[in-house]
Amino acid sequence: MYKVVQTKALNKCFRKLLKHGKKGKDATVKVRAAQSEAATEGAITSINRTKNGETRLDNVEKYDLGGGYRLVVQLVEENLKTRAFLFAGDHDDTQEWLDNHKDYKWIKNNKDQSLDYVQISEKDPEKTKIVNPEVDSAESLRDLPLLRHLTIKDWDLLGIAEDLKTYAMSINAESWECDPNSILEHIEGISDTDSAILFDDLFTHSHLSELKELSNRVLFEIGIASVTQGQELAIIIDQPQNSEVFVTWDEVSKLPENASWADWLLFLHPEQKEIAIKDFKGPARLRGVSGSGKTCVMLHRARYLAKKYRKPILLVTLTESMRKLLDSLIKELCGVEGSLIETSTIQSLAQTITKELHPKGESAYRQLNSGDLIHEIDLKVLNFVKTHENFKSARLGKLDHQALKKFVEEEVYFIRSRLQYSEFNEYLDVKSFKRHGRKIRLSAEGRNVFLDAAKYKASQLKEIFKIDYEGTVAAANSLIKGCKESLESFGWASVDVEKLESKRVNYAPYRCILVDEVQDLSQLEVSMIGGLRESSENTISSINDGLFLVGDGAQTIYNKGFVLKNCGVNVSNRSFVLKKNYRNSKEIMSASYALIEKYEFADVDEDNIAKPTKPDFPTKVSEKPFIIKCKNIEDEINFACNKVNELIREFQDIESTELYPEICVIGLNRRVRDGIAKKLKENSIKSNELKQTVGIDNTDSVAISTIESAKGHEFQHVFIVGVVEGVMPHKYSQDYDIARDASRLYVAMTRAQESLFISYNKETGSNASRFLIDIQEHCNEFDWKNMQLEMIA
């Protein structure tokens, strides 16, 4: 086999080609065939070289893929016949790519041997230089200095004279595109030719938003990096630190034939890959900032475990929309081993366990689904608390009706989501059973009130022979552990103990369970998963590789929580953190982190509460997030729908397609979501609720979503509508809720890859959310007036 590599940039080319119909798909197939041929034969003969050759890059081969498409390949090392596949696209895109990459060379960092493709001009600046306009750049960015991304340290290292620095910082995208030759001539006049060559390269990288290349061009200038080629380059390509630049054909060729070339499918950073294939002597935990590839690692690990054990593997997540996404991703990623990997929501898993373990099966219980009946029972519990003999000593009398109702519901939920019925009395032990985050600390008498309330709610459900969601999880736990007292609390007929014990011992449906978004599970949910058996002798939480927990405390959206040791799970020395953000632009991630950095969150486990992990910020750049001020909710809806329409039309014109870009509108209440759907329909724009959408490439409609359903997904463009005080954060939120609401908004913001729009309204009684003050300096503010955006200075 001869060595063949492809850059990550080529992967984006594949995604774009696949949107061009049959011709684009045929071109992609030909590129893959050429890769295979180059790997096995050391040459490419199945497709023709273009007639005129190519001189803009060293050792470049340009091929005709037919249908107007071209392929650019570089012969890295002639004797070893090592080839790098660099670009594929239509004729115009290929010409533009080659023009933009003229004089690019592979340079290595002399300290760590990492590679980058950087413009290194080695001759006098061109006298007839032409710069292609960056049509995708926002007007607000085009007015800023091109070299704004150079740091003070960069300027110091370069040793640039102050007058030259001042002039260079006066150049923006507009002036560089209009007259690059005059700019370079001026630099040459006030300094020298070498400076003009250097600034030609720096302006080029900045103009193309190639920030990593810009940084490495500085390192080259000061001697920390150097040009590499030939055999040395062929060897360095294989080193682990370059896995973010290259993927070898050996890895690519292992993909199933119908794989989609989605970025996450092809690439794992060495740090991620090490975790995905690591063997653990017990349960393990993976934390990571938003966009760090946690879910990607989990999927690859599921595949690894399915191949290793050849037994059923389960992926558990929160929502049905996320389950559908995981299911489609597994089908994309896996070969035949995919049949061993199941996906489930946590609710479905609890229902399945109850159905499978109860001797009477599915007929043993009835699920409480009626909203009216749930509301009726909650009101009964509220009245029970208000009339309890210890109510006054619980110091709750100052709360108004809605605040008290919320407090009661949350405290009863706290008990029922953490303890089986037989364990309820443990709630009274203040020292061993801590209650984090409550602004109102309950006395011993206060805890008695809520212990009785939890028992009262259980009795109300027992009377109507139904179980609610918390009851389903508690039932599953009771059956897994064979707890007779807890089982009796559900109002079931007496359970045949011998039959239950026989089922319990033999019920071992999975070899390994991997849990996504674990920070949003309750203590009983984690206990239920870990307590499932792998065999008659062992539980999932007690065996090697049995349990893999993935999550991030800063992305908590539900008020649940747990302590791992109380769930029978020990991850000592098996806990890992991913800090690098790969999803968002630097501007979006900066604003998002500014929102949460002052709060504290459970580090998955409530025994460890701390400030969120600071991410390694991405180098990809975009416009700053937009904060949009509107007169009322109707104006917010009009803005969002107008902008959605604009984004779709631009995308369709550029791509010559009828598909949509990836857009999600997150409405913070039902009124907003319904209004968005109605307005889009009036504009003949297709939309769907995200929870109903299946698959990873749904680009034929706009997604409308709640924050909860958007969790785990990502989109090019995201709108968050209705970010007003009283809704975000909620008007009845206490101190600990404020942090959780900030976390929820953080989750919504970090769904955006390229552009983010956050709107609020000044309707009577409404004010912008306090959270927008935290992110204000990282955003651009606009007023939506007369169907136009006006920038707020």
Written overview of the protein:
With 793 residues, the protein is an alpha/beta fold. It folds into four domains: 4-236, YaeB-like fold (2-Layer Sandwich), CATH 3.30.2310.20; 270-360 and 510-578, P-loop containing nucleotide triphosphate hydrolases (Rossmann fold), CATH 3.40.50; 366-491, no CATH class; 626-791, P-loop containing nucleotide triphosphate hydrolases (Rossmann fold). The strands form five sheets. The chain has an eight-stranded mixed β-sheet. Strands 2-3-4-5-1-9 form a six-stranded mixed β-sheet, sandwiched between helices. It is globular, with a radius of gyration of 29 Å.
Task: State the CATH topology of the largest domain.
Answer: YaeB-like fold
Rounded to an integer, what's the Rg over CA atoms? 29 Å
Low-confidence stretches: 249-266
Strand order of the largest sheet: 20-21-19-22-23-18-24-25
Number of strands: 25
Give the CA-CA distance, first to last residue. 61 Å
Write down the CATH class of the largest domain: Alpha Beta
Helix fraction?
40-55%
Write down the domain tally. Answer: 4
Helix count? 30
Which architecture of the largest domain per CATH? 2-Layer Sandwich
